[in-house]
Specification:
165 residues; mainly alpha; two-stranded parallel sheet; two-stranded antiparallel sheet; 6 helices; 4 strands; 8% strand; NADAR family protein; NADAR
């Protein structure tokens, strides 16, 4: 039977909003959400919003700014967003040893964003909802959970290779 690790709120290290300092291509980020929204603005060539996202200190403000990106195209975003979220989380977890340890400790489970409000990145169900325990009754796609699970497996296999050499 499939086992799950549920997460949702900012306090969880698996949340996009969880505070975590990391650097990608010389740019400093304070959360995976900031990275995602900044990359979204850059993807669509909106440097003004991109700069505002880097200056904003709260994930909620960063998300609001991300919704204002000029030239946004849903089809283009859907083709790129999973790669962007993967890359941001890869940097977040590999540059923060404690977060990496926490991620690797979930081995053997599928990570699930138990957000009752998000049917794209989460499953559209709260952790307390019994339907969350069965993938077939999820109301959402769990993109974030799937990305984090894949990232953990990729990092975990790299760690295993290093420990055997």
């Amino acid at each position: 039977m499939e086992k799950f690790t549920f997460f949702w709120r900012t306090a969880s290290p698996f949340s996009q909003w969880h505070p975590a300092d990391f650097t990608v291509s010389g740019v400093h980020y304070t959360s995976a959400e900031q990275y995602m929204m900044h990359q979204k603005a850059l993807l669509f060539g909106d440097q003004i919003i991109a700069d505002k996202i880097l200056k904003a200190s709260s994930a909620s403000v960063q998300k609001k700014l991300g919704r204002q990106v000029a030239g946004f195209d849903q089809t283009v975003w859907e083709a790129e967003c999973k790669r962007i979220v993967y890359e941001g989380n890869e940097a977040k977890f590999t540059q923060n040893e404690q977060l990496l340890t926490t991620l690797l400790a979930t081995r053997g489970t599928t990570l699930v964003e138990a957000s009752p409000d998000d049917r794209i990145w989460g499953v559209g169900l709260a952790e307390e909802d019994s339907r969350i325990r069965n993938r077939r009754t999820w109301r959402g796609t769990n993109w974030l959970g799937e990305i984090l699970t894949r990232l953990r497996e990729n990092i975990g296999s790299d760690e295993d290779e290093r420990s055997t050499t």
